[in-house]
């Protein structure tokens, strides 16, 4: 079963529309979002969770950086890293 989950998660990078559907489920003005797999509507994503951060890279560019992991992802560890990397990418985007 885990191999099927892994295959589906990896296939999301080939079929970006699936990944975009997951990201689009995030609501609210905050840049940090957490989505649990069972909320996605995809059977194979039920044992997973997503933590991702929207960031601005200059006045006209935006991006998303995230982590896909198990439902019990170590969020207290992952979230500060996402915020840090997002701030570095935002700053780099302003410089370029």
From TrEMBL:
GO molecular function, one term: DNA binding
Pfam families tied to this protein: HrcA (PF01628)
InterPro entries: GAF-like_dom_sf, HrcA_C
Domain Heat-inducible transcription repressor HrcA C-terminal: 7-79
Any one biological process term the GO annotation gives: regulation of DNA-templated transcription
This protein's name: Heat-inducible transcription repressor HrcA
């Amino acid at each position: 079963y885990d191999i099927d989950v892994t295959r589906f998660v990896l296939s999301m990078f080939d079929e970006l529309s699936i990944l975009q559907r997951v990201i689009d489920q995030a609501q609210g003005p905050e840049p940090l979002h957490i989505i649990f797999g069972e909320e996605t509507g995809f059977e194979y994503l039920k044992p997973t969770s997503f933590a991702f951060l929207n960031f601005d890279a200059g006045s006209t560019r935006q991006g998303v950086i995230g982590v896909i992991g198990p439902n019990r992802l170590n969020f207290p560890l992952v979230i500060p890293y996402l915020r840090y990397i997002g701030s570095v990418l935002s700053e780099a985007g302003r410089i370029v």
